[in-house]
C-alpha cells in the first residue's frame, strides 16, 4: 500500500468525481480532502475482515473488490461505491470480508474522520442513508427469493441488517 497524493488539493478533483461526494460544494470537498487518506491497494489485498473490529471507511475511486460472508458472495464494490460504514456506525464487528479483485485506488477515513463527514458535508449522510436502505432492500429480496421452496432456511445477515 502506498499513498501517492498527500496534499488536499490533489484530492479535490477525485473527490468531486466520486458519487458519494458529487453534491458537495467546493469548500466541503476541500474539507473532506483534508480528512481522508488516498491509498493505492494491490489486487488480493484483504481490506476488511469479517468479525474484526472496524476502524476504517472506504470509498472506491478505481478498481473493484468483492464482499463475502462466511465464504458466500454478497456484493461487488466498484468506482463510486463505499463500504466499512456499519462497524463505524454501530461499533460492532465487520459483517463481511472485502478483498481487492483488482489494483484499487481508495479514499480511506478513520473512525473520527468518518464521523466528521456529517458535519462537514450533510449531503454525504443522506446519500449514505439511501445506499444503506438500498442494501437492506436487496438483502430482504434475497431472503424472499431464498425462502421460496426452502421454508426451513435460516435468515442470513447481509451488511449487518437483521430481521426480527
Distance between the termini: 40 Å
Element order, helices and strands?
HHEEEEEEHEEHH
Main pleated-sheet profile: 4 strands, antiparallel
**Cα-atom radius of gyration:** 16 Å
Tell me the total number of β-strands. 8
Low-confidence stretches at least 5 residues in length (pLDDT < 50)?
151-164
Task: State the helix count.
Answer: 5
Please give the order of strands in the largest beta sheet.
1-8-3-6
- Portion in strands: 15-25%
Overview of this protein structure:
There is one protein chain. With 164 residues, the protein is of the alpha+beta class. The C terminus is likely disordered. It has a four-stranded antiparallel beta sheet. A four-stranded antiparallel beta sheet has the order 2-7-4-5, with no helix packed on it. The chain contains five helices and eight strands, in the order H-H-E-E-E-E-E-E-H-E-E-H-H. It is globular. Helix 2 packs antiparallel against helix 4. The N and C termini lie far apart (40 Å).
Task: Give a quick set of tags describing it.
164 residues, four-stranded antiparallel sheet, 8 strands, disordered C terminus
Write the layout of secondary structure elements.
Layout: H1 8-16, H2 26-35, E1 37-41, E2 46-48, E3 56-62, E4 65-69, E5 72-77, E6 82-83, H3 85-90, E7 97-100, E8 104-110, H4 111-120, H5 122-147
Antiparallel strand pairs: 1-8, 2-7, 3-6, 3-8, 4-5, 4-7
Helix pairs in contact: 1-2, 2-4, 4-5
Amino acid at each position: 500500500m502506498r499513498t501517492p497524493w498527500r496534499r488536499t488539493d490533489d484530492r479535490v478533483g477525485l473527490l468531486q468525481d466520486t458519487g458519494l461526494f458529487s453534491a458537495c460544494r467546493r469548500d466541503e470537498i476541500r474539507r473532506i480532502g483534508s480528512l481522508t487518506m488516498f491509498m493505492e491497494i494491490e489486487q488480493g489485498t484483504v481490506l476488511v475482515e469479517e468479525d474484526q473490529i472496524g476502524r476504517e471507511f472506504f470509498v472506491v475511486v478505481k478498481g473493484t473488490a468483492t464482499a463475502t460472508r462466511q465464504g458466500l458472495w454478497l456484493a461487488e464494490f466498484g468506482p463510486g461505491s463505499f463500504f466499512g460504514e456499519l462497524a463505524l456506525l454501530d461499533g460492532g464487528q465487520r459483517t463481511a470480508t472485502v478483498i481487492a479483485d483488482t489494483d484499487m485506488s481508495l479514499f480511506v477515513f478513520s473512525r473520527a474522520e468518518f464521523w466528521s463527514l456529517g458535519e462537514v458535508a450533510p449531503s454525504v449522510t443522506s446519500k449514505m442513508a439511501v445506499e444503506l436502505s438500498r442494501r437492506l432492500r436487496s438483502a430482504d429480496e434475497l431472503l424472499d427469493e431464498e425462502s421460496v421452496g426452502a421454508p426451513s432456511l435460516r435468515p442470513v445477515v447481509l451488511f449487518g441488517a437483521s430481521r426480527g
